[in-house]
Amino acid sequence: MNISKYEQRVLHVLAQGGAISFKRGDNGKLQDVTCVTRDGHVLNDCTLAVVERLKKRRLIRSRGGAAYRVTRAGLAAVRAQLDQR
């Protein structure tokens, strides 16, 4: 599966325990998204378009109105990266 660099970054953060918080508009669609790492930092590469593509490919999912998390398919799609700490 071809995954862009930005999608890969977001999946990597989610695989390490991050989450995507969101706001919905009056029509029920996503209006604003914020990707937060497990340390509490905000990832700027996470845009609404990236989240929509990951949702469409079923690599992330929200259960019961909670924050978006990575799915098993998302874990399988993410490539290993060094953590620059």
Automatic annotation (TrEMBL):
Pfam families assigned: YjhX_toxin
Cross-referenced InterPro entries: YjhX_toxin
Entries under HAMAP family matching the protein: UPF0386
Family under the similarity heading: Belongs to the UPF0386 family.
Official protein name in the record: UPF0386 protein SSE37_25133
